[in-house]
């Protein structure tokens, strides 16, 4: 039996009447989709200078490093077998991963997102990237689709109706679709149905096990710290679909998300002939990948960790007591190579909620 299943099954309550609600445009569920689109459409594209001032800049860089490593490794694997690589970026947002696709020298990209403004910005970013590139630089071709991928099928919207993907990347997205079984299934269908045999479905999502563990340990209906907070309506009952929670980051409440119970996700993916080949928490992924010198160099280059102690002109991201005790302890050891690279305790607690997964399409 799957490890996580053993731990969680006792606390998860199997819901009744999962798909009895109607799916027309006036349901509560579709209202939620509109909220997701409105929320992401309103998010301002802030410049590099602004981003660097953020309390959680290193955590954002860390997440970006993790996606870079995951994407690079999968593309290397695909290229062992294929000369031309086609990718679906499902829930692409404003195109935060475009440079990773360029670096990975892919040939075709389809970007899809529910938020029309994000898709416009993504397309603009792609156009800028092409314009800025060296004339000999080969940039992949791209199509941009605005669609609620938990309700609409992407197949009918592709410019090339015969298109097949080698990779589908779904970064920090799937948890929005676990509002209902039907929505989660449609999202999975979009992710997997056009993958070639041997193709990969990769992504990142909050880990239900970690979330429930922290919630149960808290003496209220929420847990968090100075950078993030997760609030549930109640404890003790965790339906497989529609288990809603609010996630706020740096004090800003995000749109509601839904718990993704991973063993269920894995089971549902089997319908599309997908086999789980890799699943790690962010912590495990970091510990495994940082051993590779190339990933370590990338980590420094992306400033995915904060320097501790900071240099004379520098300042730590937080001056709250206890945020760097772990680093202080290690730095006190005369044998330790200083400066260290670290994340503040609060950022680490926030990012270590997530997990990474890789599925492979069977023939
Ligand atoms: C946290 S952002 C991640 C963006 C991007 N994948 C990244 O890693 O930078 C989540 C994205 O999922 C998109 N999204 C949420 N629900 C969606 C749905 N049902 N269909 C398509 N996109 C969706 C949001 O609009 C948003 O752009």
Automatic annotation (TrEMBL):
Sites binding mRNA sit at 63-64
User: Which residues does the annotation list for site: mRNA cap binding?
Assistant: 94, 100, 125, 175, 257, 354
Q: Where's it found, cell-wise?
A: Nucleus
Positions annotated to bind S-adenosyl-L-methionine? 67, 91, 113, 148, 171, 176
For this record, an example GO cellular component is: nucleus
Residues in domain MRNA cap 0 methyltransferase? Answer: 54-362
Q: Report the CDD domains cross-referenced here.
A: AdoMet_MTases (cd02440)
For this protein, what reaction is catalysed? a 5'-end (5'-triphosphoguanosine)-ribonucleoside in mRNA + S-adenosyl-L-methionine = a 5'-end (N(7)-methyl 5'-triphosphoguanosine)-ribonucleoside in mRNA + S-adenosyl-L-homocysteine
One Pfam entry for this protein is mRNA_G-N7_MeTrfase
Enzyme Commission designation: 2.1.1.56
Where mainly found? nucleus
**Which key words tag this protein in UniProt?**
Methyltransferase, mRNA capping, mRNA processing, Nucleus, RNA-binding, S-adenosyl-L-methionine, Transferase
Q: Which residues cross the membrane?
A: none
Instruction: State the PROSITE patterns in the record.
Output: RNA_CAP0_MT
Name the protein family: Belongs to the class I-like SAM-binding methyltransferase superfamily. mRNA cap 0 methyltransferase family.
Q: What does this protein do?
A: Catalytic subunit of the mRNA-capping methyltransferase RNMT:RAMAC complex that methylates the N7 position of the added guanosine to the 5'-cap structure of mRNAs. Binds RNA containing 5'-terminal GpppC.
Listed name of the protein: mRNA cap guanine-N(7) methyltransferase
